[in-house]
Amino acid sequence: MSVPSRRTSGRGLPPSALREQEGPTARPGQVLRHETVLIGKSELRSEIGSDAYHGGLLDPLSAALHVGRFVRGMAEACERTGVEIHERNAAIGVRRTAEGRFEVSTSAV
Hints:
Blueprint: H1 15-20, H2 28-32, E1 37-40, H3 41-48, E2 55-58, H4 67-80, E3 91-96, E4 102-106
């Protein structure tokens, strides 16, 4: 399967590239070895709630995670519960306290 290198403002495939992927040459399911569906703009909007893309590949067995947002969200949740975050320090040990919490030893002086 060839993947077009053209992009529209970093927002997915332009309509011409989407059309190029339609038809008998569009067989991503053969590469992935499970069913995938090439969908157009209206179907994609119902999947992701955005009109920014002209179409996409629906893969029911995959998922995506924005790692930066996930880590930021985890850090914010931890801080709300009283966790102190010390960046750029190696964790050198973890122990459970008598209260059932965790205490992490770091390389910080």
